Amino acid sequence: MFILRRFFLLVGLSFLMMSVCSNAFAGLAPLPPNECEINGAAGQPPSCFPSLVPSSSNPTNGVCASAAGACTAGTASATSNDGTTTTWTCAGSNGGTTASCSTSDPINGVCASAAGTCSAGTASATATSSDGTTETWTCSGSNGGTDAPCSQVLSPSCSWTDNGGENGNPPTDIGCSPGTLSNKTMSDWSNAGGSGKEYSWTCSLGSASVACSAAWQTVHGGVHTQ
What we know:
Oligomer: single chain
Structural class: mainly beta
Shape: rod-shaped
Radius of gyration: 46 Å
Number of helices: 1
């Protein structure tokens, strides 16, 4: 009697296994009936759908981050640099794509010797101190580079327009650039080559000053030019 009960139980389970395997859930591919495995625990239904367990191995694409050598997603490679640009890759996983990454290197601002100029970076407009003795500007860095504050102490300088003094034309626009004009005078001069006139003046800036002069000729070897 016990043997018959076991027989009918096995037959019933076989029919149940075939029914489950032939009526798989929508979208799932069931195993063939002969590959369905009956759970070892008594009274459990057969297992025909191994794909019911969700997969955690979804593809992940590599994504570059803004910082050199970093990734928002994926695995970063070692960086390389050609002197101006840093490059690296962000490798995807589980069949995901690999991203090629690059970023420009920081450029620090560097002041040049001439006022308002930079050896590196972008120069701002110049500004002159209230006493007129110093000129300042900024050399701005780029790509995260630093800015450089720049300054230059100014010296007085003579200025005028030469209109052809050797032909008897007196200079014009007598002045200073930079500086303040003072003590402007006009005098005569003469030598073996002729004679003429000369402007003299002083240009001052702060505690510094410079003597200036601009001459023109009125007589060449005894011949008047004006």
